[in-house]
């Protein structure tokens, strides 16, 4: 375990931080530095100067102004569930944690909006919405620990993008503290606001490099009714796309996911969940819809039967209860947690939906040839063109050597991404892990403009430096 305990030269800064937030809200102990100086990536050892826990926007402003004066880099810390190193503090930075800024307030039933401090847990907002008879639809495996500020900073997507879109689509307003320590209130919850540039959109997905999100006005919607899921076994990836096209043409799907037999085996062994059916199939599609009435159920079954007749589906099951629905979803949602024990090297890539079959085939041929001794786990969000490629580390291989081997092959993977006009980061952000590959998805002109935008909001360069680009 690595840490960067405070030195005598940092003592005055620590004292000033304690004066801002209280002595009990500034921590330099080894355990806190380690836990709050990292995210779910395991490629970097955390080494922050200290971790500070503000409780208000005013305290965040004071912290940023102090950091600017002292030329002290800041790394924002939310639920630390990121997968690209965006929340890693490995160079003596000051970590600003939003764990104590977790209040929900100002619910408006007419506008269907609610104000959330940055540290509100995703699941906390989901439960709050349910209590109001409403729904917050952005959902993913880390909903129980990820925080709204981090979700916004990475424009988190997840499993319901097909129907409800990304986090960006649910942010009605933001309060942010810039690298100058200025507090900006952006958009104020308005649905229609064409009075100049929408600066709110710049901070969504910026990974804390422009400033710190301290509060968000989030939009809610009506809850879905009687969600029902199919898990269908498929012989090949063309079959999955045929399924998607057939169902999408006839029904309003809320989700369409896929995973491989290797992924299913890992989850079943780890969780004890039953297989969806006895047949073992190379791939599985999980599709979800609202079963509003008997006619919808009959339509879904007719589509399923037609896909079987076409030879696209080998076997399948449809949920008959909420418990079965949840268990079928766990077969997909438990994959990341299950494979984490193998220190996976992850690629989060995307292209337009129509190009997914050729995209997957080209990537799979490459990694199978380059990783003959590595286990490869596929899953992803077919409904939005997002594929997750996971390479599992062999137990007897050193972590550094494993990541070095995977990084070399990633260049070839990203060459394919570029050829298909795709993204090297569909939903996990760039952070440290992918900044060397940013130009595979963004032109040199775009990156130059990004740097200029950062300079405007963070002229001293203290906001999460080294993330997205150097």
From TrEMBL:
The keyword Oxidoreductase applies. Keywords: FAD, Flavoprotein, Oxidoreductase. This is FAD-binding oxidoreductase. Gene3D superfamilies: 3.30.465.10, 3.30.70.2190, 3.30.70.2740, Uridine Diphospho-n-acetylenolpyruvylglucosamine Reductase, domain 2 (3.30.43.10), Vanillyl-alcohol Oxidase, Chain A, domain 4 (1.10.45.10). InterPro entries: FAD-bd_oxidored_4_C, FAD-bd_PCMH, FAD-bd_PCMH-like_sf, FAD-bd_PCMH_sub1, FAD-bd_PCMH_sub2, FAD-linked_Oxase-like_C, FAD-oxidored/transferase_4, Oxid_FAD_bind_N. Its cofactor is FAD. The keyword Oxidoreductase applies. It comes from Spongiibacter thalassae. Residues 44-223 form the FAD-binding PCMH-type domain. Belongs to the FAD-binding oxidoreductase/transferase type 4 family.
């Amino acid at each position: 375990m690595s840490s960067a305990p405070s030195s005598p030269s940092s003592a005055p800064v620590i004292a000033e931080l304690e004066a801002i937030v209280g002595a009990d809200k500034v921590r330099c102990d080894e355990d806190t530095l380690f836990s709050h100086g990292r995210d779910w990536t395991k490629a970097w050892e955390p080494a922050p100067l200290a971790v500070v826990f503000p409780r208000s926007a005013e305290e965040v402003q004071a912290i940023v102004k102090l950091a600017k004066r002292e030329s002290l880099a800041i790394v924002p810390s939310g639920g630390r569930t990121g997968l690209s190193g965006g929340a890693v503090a490995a160079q003596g930075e000051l970590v600003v944690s939003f764990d104590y800024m977790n209040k929900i307030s100002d619910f408006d039933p007419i506008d269907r909006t609610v104000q959330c401090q940055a540290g509100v847990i995703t699941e906390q907002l989901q439960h709050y919405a349910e209590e109001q008879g409403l729904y917050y639809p952005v959902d993913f495996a880390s909903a129980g620990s990820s925080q709204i500020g981090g979700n916004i900073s990475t424009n988190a997507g997840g499993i319901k993008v097909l129907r409800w879109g990304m986090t960006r689509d649910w942010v009605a307003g933001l309060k942010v503290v810039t690298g100058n320590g200025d507090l900006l209130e952006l958009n104020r919850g308005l649905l229609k606001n064409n009075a100049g540039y929408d600066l709110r959109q710049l901070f969504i997905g910026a990974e804390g490099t422009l400033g710190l999100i301290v509060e968000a006005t989030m939009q809610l919607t009506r809850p879905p009714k009687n969600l029902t899921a199919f898990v269908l076994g498929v012989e090949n990836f063309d079959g999955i796309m045929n399924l998607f096209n057939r169902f999408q043409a006839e029904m309003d799907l809320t989700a369409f996911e896929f995973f491989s037999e290797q992924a299913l085996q890992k989850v079943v062994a780890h969780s004890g969940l039953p297989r969806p059916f006895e047949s073992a199939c190379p791939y599985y599609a999980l599709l979800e819809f609202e079963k509003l009435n008997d006619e919808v159920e009959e339509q879904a079954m007719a589509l399923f039967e037609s896909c079987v007749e076409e030879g696209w589906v080998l076997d399948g099951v449809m949920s008959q209860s909420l418990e079965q629905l949840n268990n079928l979803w766990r077969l997909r949602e438990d994959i990341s947690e299950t494979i984490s024990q193998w220190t996976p090297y992850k690629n989060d890539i995307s292209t337009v939906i129509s190009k997914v079959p050729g995209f997957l085939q080209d990537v799979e041929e490459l990694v199978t040839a380059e990783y003959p001794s590595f286990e490869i786990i596929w899953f992803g969000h077919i409904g939005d063109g997002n594929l997750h490629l996971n390479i599992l580390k062999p137990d007897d291989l050193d972590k550094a050597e494993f990541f070095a081997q995977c990084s070399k092959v990633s260049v070839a993977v990203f060459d394919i991404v570029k050829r298909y006009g795709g993204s090297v980061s569909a939903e996990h952000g760039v952070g440290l892990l992918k900044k060397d590959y940013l130009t595979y998805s963004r032109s040199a002109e775009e990156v130059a403009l990004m740097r200029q935008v950062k300079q405007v909001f963070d002229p001293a360069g203290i906001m999460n430096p080294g993330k997205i680009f150097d």
